[in-house]
Amino acid sequence: MLKIIFLLLMSGGIPVAVAMAGSALIYILWTGNLPPIAVIHRMVSGIDSFPLLAVPFFILAGNLMNNAGITNRIYNFALALVGWLKGGLGHVNVVGSVVFAGMSGTAIADAAGLGTIEIKAMKDHGYSTEFAVGVTAASATLGPIIPPSLPFVIYGMMANVSVGALFLAGILPGGLMALLMMLTVAYFAHRNGWGADVKFQWSKVIKALAELAVVMAWPLAVWALVVHAGWPAQPTVLIGLVVLFVSDRVFRFQAVLPIMTPVLLIGGMTTGVFTPTEGAIAACIWAMVLGFVWYRTLHWKMFVKVCLDTVETTSTVLFIVAAASIFGWMLTATGVTAAIGQWVLSFTKEPWVFLLLANLLMLFVGCFLEPTAAITILVPILVPICQQLGIDLVHFGLVMVLNLMIGLLHPPMGMVLFVLARVAKLSVERTTLAILPWLVPLLGSLIIITYVPQLVLWLPRWVQ
């Protein structure tokens, strides 16, 4: 009965969050087993969670980075690094998204922030609008895979899984996805006879590589001083940050400090300096230091606007979580989740078959539901089955998030699709067709990530 009411409300065009909360309320009124106030109580308790405090702060950090001119620095860095390859701006698009993913945590922020710059630049260099939109859409899916990630925070809270482990698990799969996308760009460049978009210059390439070397060497140097030389941790980190800022000023780096965002977050979480929630606050402080003090591209009027945008986005996300909380609780209380679990286990007890069926289900659901709502509905249904089949929940979390990110690229609810259609001034139909070829690297990545769990779990296990 609950599922029928929910589907009827959804088919009537009612927003998914209202449909979830409304179906639970109607079901309670229909059966009379619980007082209606139980809906409000359960919705409030659903968002009364310390890990969920990370949501507004990660959104704020991404908005601050997006409005502080950081996107231009990332684009210029990627242009210097790979713009001289054949199909250069396509490679720049992917590399830029890898870097920006380490700050925004969402696919929509990537598409709306970097996408605006990248699509215009690619069109100016003679690329077709469809190709520019396709590669931008595909690379935007990297946003929630490479840490930090808003969907990982929601999944970790719902499935009772370490958010830090999920962040670490996303690094290697994110690199694999980026590699497959760049190979796809190279294929199109070879087939269409595209050349480079910028002239190869040793000085720019060496400087870009030097920036990467600084980003990789800095945490290793700090770790060596603390672990092997016995230096105290906090003073060592502060000294390292001073050296980092001085180097940035002396050598005029493009993107070292923005790229350091995920390094500082993951380093802080794995060493126990702060929790993922506290890490979200640290990311905001880092973004404010860069925007207000270092680059001086933020001002207070802009900051107020960013905060208001963050409040709007946060309220939407948390309302979905609250509505999904009562809906998921009702599914469990009415025995729906147990019935689904028994049916699946009666059908198959092979983990690989279940993962195949789960992928098909999540790809389908992702086309109709916003990722936050989909996660909060699917976790109570699928996670108990994973536990019975011995599937690692960190691995399954990555599979779930990637499925739902692919769903963002398709109608009828694909938000990245609609954002890019608006940015590129294309119809939704043409935008959908432009994205279709890019499903090949995305689905290829999904298959590898699903059936090679070692790729996902190696780094979290190694750090532990």
- Compute the number of structural domains: 1
Query: Strand-and-helix sequence, N→C?
Result: HHHHHHHHHHHHHHHHHHHHHHHH
Helix proportion of residues, in percent? over 70%
The count of strands amounts to 0
Broad shape: globular
What's the average pLDDT?
83
Largest sheet: none
Gyration radius, in Å:
22 Å
Structural class of the helices, strands and pairings? mainly alpha
Q: Please report the number of helical segments.
A: 24
What is the rounded distance between the termini? 45 Å
Q: What is the beta-strand fraction?
A: under 5%
The residue ranges in which pLDDT falls below 50 over 5 or more consecutive positions are: none
Q: Overview of this structure, please?
A:
This protein is mainly α. It has one domain (51-463). Helices cover 79% and strands 0% of the residues. The protein contains 24 helices and no strands. It has helices at 2-11, 16-31, 37-47, 54-67, 70-82, 88-104, 107-124, 129-140, 150-159, 163-169, 171-192, 202-227, 233-251, 256-270, 276-294, 300-333, 336-347, 351-366, 371-389, 393-407, 415-424, 428-435, 439-451, 453-463. α6 packs across α14 and α7 (107-124) runs antiparallel to α8 (129-140). The N and C termini lie far apart (45 Å). The model has no long low-confidence stretch (mean pLDDT 83).
Task: Give a summary of the structure in a few sentences.
The chain is mostly helical and 464 residues long. The protein has helices at residues 2-11, 16-31, 37-47, 54-67, 70-82, 88-104, 107-124, 129-140, 150-159, 163-169, 171-192, 202-227, 233-251, 256-270, 276-294, 300-333, 336-347, 351-366, 371-389, 393-407, 415-424, 428-435, 439-451, 453-463.
